[in-house]
Amino acid sequence: MSDVKKFMYLNRRAPYGTIYAWESLEVVLIGAAFDQEVSLMFVDDGVFQLVKGSDTSESDMKNFTPTYRTLGDYGVRHMYVDKTSLEAHGLTQDDLIEVAWEDWESEEEVDNIVEVLDSEELAEKLGESDVVFSF
Amino acid sequence: MKLAVQVNEGPYQHQASDSAYHFTKAALEGGHDVFRVFFYHDGVLNGTRLTTPPQDDRNIVKRWVELAEKYDLDLVLCVAAAQRRGIVDDGEAERNGKDATNIAPKFRISGLGQLIEAAIQCDRLVVFGD
């Protein structure tokens, strides 16, 4: 496909209280086949989606947190996290999973594409996007 | 303008389907091209023909069907979301061994690729939901 668009998946909700986070992830996984420029953004309770060490065994729900760690293999190039939301929930980047990315052709590698940004920078990233999926 | 519409909430519970309907209708009447309406999450519940609202209320499902009939609108329910929530067409009934179908006319069940494709093809993707 010749025209590549900038896709932004805006994740605003905690992972297990509602199905939005998981069904958002399903769109990202399926969307990988379309070879677009894909970024994810996590704001408000959405920052909980990236907290490491989650354990859902006692709630009888499928733990999909490990899936986020594979997103680099699904063509996701950036994962932006809202600094204000992180702080409001008493979290820091150390609490979040790391997601590696590698370009198989150019062999360019990034150890961790999870990046904490302030509101102004996030607004800029949103403004640069061609498509915003809001979940 | 070429538009894609995404509906993320079920009918009656939430305003999203109403807003999406009025937006889509106004866009079509205004001469815009609505490439596809994609129903996701509980939004797939907009596509069951078994809905029976009280007679003095709006019929949300029927309204979508009539709009689709008038403008040949493409109404797509996400297959994964539909399977979870029990929205079934002939193909799904056969594949998953169900004893009934409930999909409304003019709706079809298809994959998330249809949403991605719509976002690529259109000038704007307009999302309705919380």
Describe this structure in words.
Chain A is built from 4 helices and 7 strands. With 135 residues, chain A is of the alpha/beta class. Chain A has a single domain (6-134), classed as Hypothetical Protein Ychn, Chain: A (3-Layer(aba) Sandwich). The radius of gyration of chain A is 14 Å and the shape is globular. Chain B has a 5-stranded parallel beta sheet with strand order 4-3-2-1-5, with helices on both faces. Chain B starts with a strand and ends with a strand. Chain B is built from 5 helices and 5 strands, in the order βαβαβααβαβ. Chain B is of the alpha/beta class and 130 residues long. Chain B is globular, with a radius of gyration of 14 Å. At the A-B interface, helix 1 and strand 7 of A face helix 3 and helix 5 of B.
Q: What would the keywords be for this entry?
A:
heterodimer; A: 135 residues; alpha/beta; Hypothetical Protein Ychn, Chain: A; five-stranded parallel beta sheet; two-stranded antiparallel sheet; 4 helices; 7 strands; B: 130 residues; 5 helices
Give the structure's gist in a few sentences.
Chain A is α/β, with parallel strands linked by helices.
The first-level CATH class of chain A is given as Alpha Beta
Radius of gyration of chain B: 14 Å
The main sheet of chain B comes to: 5 strands, parallel
For the sheet with most strands of chain A, the description reads: 5 strands, parallel
Total helices of chain B: the number is 5
